[in-house]
Design goal:
TIM Barrel; 45% helix; 8-stranded parallel barrel; alpha/beta; 11 helices; 8 strands; 297 residues
Length: 297
């Protein structure tokens, strides 16, 4: 039997998501992460945006710095929450002027958990409207969100796919999925999307489990299912961070390997501003600094 990670050629593309730092210490930690992952040659990196717009300035500063100082294509998250159309598009224009050419266009979540999304009175109602408006402002590359386990506000999986198709039809270049923990969840969703007429690239979002309690919270908020077997593997590891990291890397790498067998060649990692887990998973998949240099040559 061939070992699971034997002789992979590194013929994958990767991208990473960061969140804007709140303090100088967090800023230093983020830049250590960026510098650690940069040699892997990411296709792009993205920076998140607070649900209530509270991180707007920090997101802009982080994206602009990445774009100007690293040479890595940087994407800024932009949401419809808490701002008028003119305010949102002013932000988009400022990104374009700063050299940022890629936007991750999102409806955004309500500021308070459990609330329903209510558009700003003069704002965009959803990511479809936002995507169309961004494309009218400038020839941005636009990524949008997709939900393999169905968005919690969608009436049905079919309605959720219809919404994704509307975003693609509005001009989105690709979709990046919410995280999931079973490869078949993504593969079935990808096949359903193709059957519904969606031809744009759909990139799986991968969340390595660095903090189990935090991951459970994230999963509850977005409706992602944590398999019982995976939950059991982390039992008793709350006070054993090194062991937890090893287990997390093994789980995520095996899932990515199965996705690779299913034809996936681009993986988007939710880093939580930590490099080690994502770096190790990429290495197991054959994506190393050396293969990145060969791919760029």
């Amino acid at each position: 039997m061939t070992p699971l990670f034997a002789d992979l050629t590194g013929d994958i593309e990767i991208s990473f998501e960061f969140f804007p730092p709140k303090t100088e210490k967090m800023d230093a930690a983020l830049w250590e992460t960026v510098q650690a992952l940069a040699p892997l040659g990411p296709r792009f990196v993205s920076v998140t945006y607070g649900a209530d717009g509270s991180t707007r300035d920090r997101t802009h500063a982080t994206v602009t710095r990445i774009a100007q100082e690293t040479g890595i294509p940087a994407a800024a998250h932009l949401t419809c929450v808490g701002a008028s159309k003119s305010e949102v598009l002013d932000i988009a224009r400022a990104y374009w002027e700063a050299g940022v050419r890629h936007i991750v266009a999102l409806r955004g979540d309500p500021p308070q958990a459990g609330q329903r999304f209510t558009p700003h009175p003069q704002g965009f109602a959803n990511a479809t409207e936002l995507t169309a408006a961004l494309k009218a402002v400038a020839p941005f590359e636009v990524s949008v969100a997709a939900y393999p386990e169905c968005h919690q506000d969608s009436a049905s999986p079919e309605a959720d796919l219809d919404n994704l198709k509307a975003k693609i039809d509005a001009g989105a270049d690709r979709a990046i999925t919410q995280f999931f923990f079973a490869p078949e969840t993504f593969l079935r969703f990808r096949d359903r999307a193709a059957a519904s007429g969606i031809t744009a690239e759909i990139v799986p979002g991968i969340l390595p489990v660095s903090n189990v309690a935090q991951t459970r919270k994230f999963a509850r908020q977005c409706g992602a299912e944590i398999p019982a077997w995976m939950d059991r593997l982390f039992e008793g590891l709350d006070e054993r961070p090194e062991t937890r990291q090893l287990v997390a890397a093994a789980i995520a790498a095996e899932m990515c390997r199965k996705l690779y067998d299913g034809g996936v060649r681009h993986f988007h990692f939710y880093t939580l501003n930590r490099a080690a887990l994502c770096y190790s998973i990429c290495h197991l998949l054959g994506k190393t600094a050396a293969t990145a240099i060969r791919a760029a040559a």
